[in-house]
Amino acid sequence: MESIANFKLIVNEIRLKNHELTERSFNIEPKITRNIVKMENDNYSVELNFSITNTEEKPFPIDLFVSMAGNFDLKTFPQEQKEDFLNIQAVQIIFPYMRNIISTITTASFMPPLVLPIVDVNSLVYEKENIE
Q1: Which residues contact 24 (CB under 8 A, 6 or more apart)?
Q2: Residue ranges per domain, the chain?
Q3: Long-range Cβ pairs for the range 99-105 (8 Å, 24+)
Q4: Which CATH homologous superfamily contains domain 6-111?
């Protein structure tokens, strides 16, 4: 496997709204999306967005949105390895940081921490994006 020439992690946005619901049991159904953008000189941005929204049909005590991006310099990668890296391994690199931020921001907001389970990244990626 080739090495990443440079990597930068960016927190784009964090939003949290507490609805102060008093129920004791909630089902968490987050929405996680990924967006891959080719920048210049074999640099790519992989953005992950995580959201949970309180609705009447699916109540949840908070609305939470976290957007993070990893910028990767892949100039040393062969072209045939870039697509797999950006679709899978890049998400594996970013997701633990997102998980930590979600836990930290909910704890710092004086509410029980929202600790996401460790997940198989392949289960998050429903459709591979083709990188040009």
Answers
A1: none
A2: 6-111
A3: 101/11, 101/14, 101/66, 101/68, 102/50, 102/64, 102/66, 105/14, 105/16, 105/64, 105/66
A4: SecB-like (3.10.420.10)
- Calculate the average pLDDT of the chain: 87
- What pLDDT, in 10s, does the model give residues 59-112? 889 999 999 999 999 988 888 889 889 999 999 999 999 999 999 999 998 888
Can you list the alpha helix ranges (DSSP code H) found in 1-132? 79-84, 90-108, 121-124
Other Cβ atoms less than 10 A from the Cβ of 61: the count is: 19
Report whether pLDDT(29) > 90: no
